[in-house]
Amino acid sequence: MDESKLEVIPYLSFRGDCEEALAAYIKAFGGEVLYMSRWSENTCEQPSEEGKVMHAEFRLGRTRMAAGDSPGGGEPNADIKLMVHMDSMAEAGRAISVLLEGGGAVLWPLRPHPAPDDAGCGSGTRDRFGYTWIVTCPNPEYIKKG
Questions:
Q1: Is the pLDDT of residue 117 over 80?
Q2: Cα 135–chain centre separation
Q3: Nearest to residue 13, comparing CAs of 63, 64, 61, 54?
Q4: Where is 18: in which H helix or E strand?
Q5: Reported pTM
Q6: What is the Cα Rg of the chain in Å?
Q7: Residue 89 — very low, low, confident or very high, per pLDDT cuts 50/70/90?
Q8: Which residue segments constitute the domains of the chain, with CATH numbers given?
Q9: Distance between CA atoms of 19 and 69, rounded to whole angstroms?
Q10: Closest Cα to residue 29, out of 85, 67, 79, 106?
């Protein structure tokens, strides 16, 4: 196997709101849906699953990801955390605001990383779909001093 072609693709599971979640993530970070298939009458286990997302592949920045609605409305894996590096405090703040829409929660505010960590800032936000996003950016105070 050619390891240089290997790509690990994070796969997110949702409780029937996958399409809404992808729209929110693309709004927050930019990107696009590359492919989406839906559960049909012939493929779903329960009538309530019909029309939900069976499988989607999407891109956030240069990162390719995948997702789908869990059969039976299973819970998302809250153990996974997704980290995104933004170019500025303003961009980070905008992305965090989008993740907070509809019931997200700030786990820790956007603030400078403690020493001896790098010269950046970071925030933790749990979105309304149950996932934790670590949004980072350069620390403008460090840039001024550097």
A1: no
A2: 10
A3: 54
A4: helix 18-29
A5: 0.75
A6: 17
A7: very high
A8: 3-73 (3.30.720.100), 81-145 (3.10.180.10)
A9: 9
A10: 85
What band does 75 get if pLDDT is binned at 50, 70 and 90?
Answer: low
> Around 28, how many Cα atoms within 13 Å sit in the side-chain half-sphere?
26
pLDDT of residue 78: 57
Owner of token pair 């409305």: 73
More confident residue, 74 or 113: 113
pLDDT score for 65 = 93
pLDDT at 49: 79
| Percentage of the chain modeled with pLDDT above 90 | 45
For residue 69 the two structure tokens come to: 């609605």
Q: Which residues of 39-142 form beta strands (DSSP E)?
A: 53-60, 63-69, 81-85, 105-112, 120-126, 132-138
d(CA 78, CA 111): 23
CA distance 99 to 126: 8
Q: What values do phi and psi take at 84, rounded to 5?
A: -130, 130
User: Quick one: tokens of 89?
Assistant: 């405090």
Residues 2 and 19: their CA atoms lie apart, in Å, by 33
